[in-house]
Every structure is written in C-alpha cells, then in structure tokens.
C-alpha cells in the first residue's frame, strides 16, 4: 500500500510551527499553580480506597489475634508473608481457646504489592491494612517486618464481636 504524503511548505520545513507549539505548552505550564508537595512538611491526603501496608493487630485484652492458620501466606501472590507454625510441643497460646500461635510471622514489605488479599482471607481479622505510605529502611533486612514490629505498628483492634471472651465464658461454665 502506498501512502500519499503532502509535501511540506517552507515554514514546516523550518520547524517553526513545532517550535511555536512547544513554546506555548511551556508558557501554559509556567503560569499554572504548582502541584509539587514539600514532603515531609506537607502530607498527602490518603484517598478512602487506598490500601496500605498489612499489619498484625491485637484484641482488646492485648492478645495476638493470629492463630497461625497460614491462609494469608497461601493467598499472597508475591509470597511476601512467611509463617512458621509451632510444632506439636510448641509454646502455649497466649489465650485459652487458641490452639496455636505462630512462632514466626514475617512480611517482606519490599515484596508486598498491597493487594489486600491477606486482610480479606484472615478468619480471625488479625491482619489489617493501615493507610500509611511512608515505609522506609536503610537496607533490605529492615524492610522484613517480624511479628513484634507488625504488632507494634498494627496496634489494638476493638472487636464488636468478642468471640474469644464468649468461648472462655462458655468453657468456664462447663468446668465443674
């Protein structure tokens, strides 16, 4: 197929229209309001639908909510979460009705894609996405968050349904 092209006139051959159009774009941006933020003095207003970094949370009594079911580890697309469950004679759980607590719980924030699947799949609501965006570290080891750091950053989550307290009351009522 042959494409017929119109010949350029003398102004187009000098590239003056292209230079003039580029100058107009430059002037238009030169007099607009600036959109650059002066971070950290100015902070970004996080949108409502923003999915931040995943963190572990505690319940009202200060107990770890994670029961080491490993669903978050299996559903994580980049395999950023690693959980080491306890062995048969592992340490006791920090609350009465929990069968097992994780020996190790790590999230590699460099691999995490902030998809939110771990929060959705967690049956105990132990993982929540926090709306922060300033994750910093000086080396790769600092960006692998262990259980203690995740619990510290996640804080305490106030449950509306006190599942474990109800189970403890029922167990105490059944004991002679």
Q: Kindly, what is the distance between the CA atoms of the first and last residues, rounded to a whole number of angstroms?
A: 93 Å
* Outline type: elongated
Could you name the CATH topology of the domain at 53-162?
Alpha-Beta Plaits
What is the second-level CATH architecture of the domain at 53-162? Answer: 2-Layer Sandwich
Strand content: 5-15%
Please tally the β strands and state the result: 5
Report the sheet with the most strands, covering strand number, pairing sense and barrel closure.
3 strands, antiparallel
The SS-based structural class is alpha+beta
Mean pLDDT equals 85
CATH class descriptor of the domain at 53-162 = Alpha Beta
Order of the strands making up the biggest sheet:
2-3-5
User: What string, H for helix and E for strand, traces the elements in order?
Assistant: HHEHEEHEEHH
CA-based gyration radius? 28 Å
Helix residue percentage: 25-40%
**Poorly predicted sequence stretches spanning 5 or more consecutive residues:** none
Annotation field: number of helices:
6
